[in-house]
Amino acid sequence: MSSHKSITAHLLHHPDTAELYRKATQCRFLELAGQGRLPKDALSQWLSQDRLYAQAYCRFIGGLISRVQLPLSSATEAGRTTSFRILLMLQTALSGVTTELQFFETTAMEYELDLAAMEGGQEFEANQVTKACIDLFDSYTAEAGKGRSLLQGLIMLWALEKVYLDAWTFAKEQVAGCTALDGGALRNKFIPNWAGDQFGAFVDQIQECLDAYAPEATPSDVDQIAMDAWKEILVLEEGFWPRVQ
């Protein structure tokens, strides 16, 4: 990685992951979602998994908070450090995901979406990809996370949210039809929330924290650590979008 290029710019523009990134942020599911052509049952099934993902995300953020080391200095000086900025950002993340879980419930009720829906009427549980995401998040908890660093976690957090923002921005850019098969839940509620300025500002905040922290915490193999984390998230995010016709 060039000494003049930030870690996020290095990952975003790396030729080895360009196709992985496209697949993670552009797919048929997102096209139909933006066009209003995604059936209500398909949205319910995906949203049910996203809710489980969000619940585990809370534990992930808690694990990252536990890794932040504030300096032994005065409160005024501490407030200007990268560590304190990261702590404030993670506080925003935790507040945001708790608000998101409530948003799921109220929107599902308004649009009659089933938050325990499974394809084929199976008993509700996390699907294979969601389980992989949950396992990843739980690998940062106190019991399991001794081998996981704050740097790795911040890379993954930024990657998760950056991909999510760009994916739903892609959906937002689709030409909407006259009717919405989901009753308007995506175009009226979910897409404005996930592709809006507020979420975009949060993703920028994560990126700024990561780019500031990486030079301070960089191990000798930072390029490989960053690329491994980036690829892992891209593969998971691609798999998280359901296959639809």
From TrEMBL:
CDD domains: TenA_E_At3g16990-like
Species whose genome carries this gene: Apiospora kogelbergensis
Domain Thiaminase-2/PQQC residue range list: 20-243
Gene3D superfamilies per record: Heme oxygenase-like (1.20.910.10)
Protein name (record): Thiaminase-2/PQQC domain-containing protein
PANTHER family linked: REGULATOR PAB1642, PUTATIVE (AFU_ORTHOLOGUE AFUA_3G11955)-RELATED (PTHR41813:SF2)
Gene Ontology BP, a term: thiamine metabolic process
